[in-house]
What does this fold into?
Amino acid sequence: MHIHEYQAKQLLAKYGVPVPDGGVASTVDEATRIARDMGGGAWMIKAQIHAGGRRSGHFDGAPQGEGGVRLANSITDVEKHAGEMLGHALITSQTRPSGSDVERVYVERACDVASELYLGMLVDRHTSRVTLVASAAGGVNIESIAKEHPESVIKRAIDPNEGLATDTAQELASELALKGGQAEAAVGVIQTLYQIFTELDASLIEINPLAVTATGEVMALDATLTFDDNALFRHPDIQALRDDAELQLGELEAAQHGINYVKLDGNIGCLASGAGTALATLDAVHLFGGEPANFLDVPPVAQVGRVKDALRLLLSDPGVASILVNVFGGGIMRCDTIADAIIMANRETPLKVPLIARLAGTNATFAIRRLKDAGPDIVFASDLADAADKAVTAAKQVKAIQRRSWWQRVRKAGGVN
It folds into this structure.
């Protein structure tokens, strides 16, 4: 689960990490009031969306080069920038093509920055350990830095039995060329990040930049926090920070039903049981020339009702031209559970697009016979490759029929000679 920058900074401040003064506003009047109340002569106005690249992004109709992070040197500038952001879509390299609507801006006291560092913490899938990532080249895209100058990125895996040793934090601060009080402050920030990561079940923390100000302070000027969805039941206060407006089609309903769902840009709806099987399904669709409409992983412990809800998500997506169900029943998940869910979903929302099913494993033969007897028009596949091929072919046929129907309507209306 993602949260906004202002929420991340509130959490960091609660744990004692230094952040600039600031406040969140949903109207221009609120933005100018926050700036006046803080005082000073310069403020940063930051669009609050769940995407990176805000500074280099753009708003339709806004002057070129003015993205979602701007410096305001006067209250008039605050009013201007907030007005150009609020209620408009910000398009960045990490948003969908239409951008993300800006409903809030963060008004923050501007800092005189001497240098910018990068500091992050994540779970390294290769070592299965929480890993510190740092670089003296902060304030820019860390992925580009890691690719072009890998030697400038420092990584330190943390032993889960020992935790983060003070020596490790001190060594990291030294490698970032920090000395004296600045090094001591950085060590405190590093140790606090590990505390936050473990106590709140985070999956990613980024401070970019971690700035050294002209007065020698070490301060988090930007922050990204992402939390493990599977651990949110332990943190209702964190779960309450979810911004439903940032979720795409189906993602809110999926979250409510405990389904792992991510909307993608294709037109082939995919349902699988188990994250590995779901990823393999997406790969197979790509291999046969198709584009998945989603990632959907139904937990192996899911009952019929939850699987039915998952199918309803796919059936309610107007962009889906075919549906691929790929389930290998084993252990807890049984193929007849999937079959019953398909039958129930079809009764509530009759299938309007081809559904291709590959069922293997526990009760597969019984499930296929049950589906054939129940009546939904389903195409069965022998294996994943066969299923992906049939799903891609079916989607292309549906799109071709839709195009012919559209042209027939246009001709009938007299739009084409």
Notes: The chain has three domains: 21-109, 113-237, 249-406.
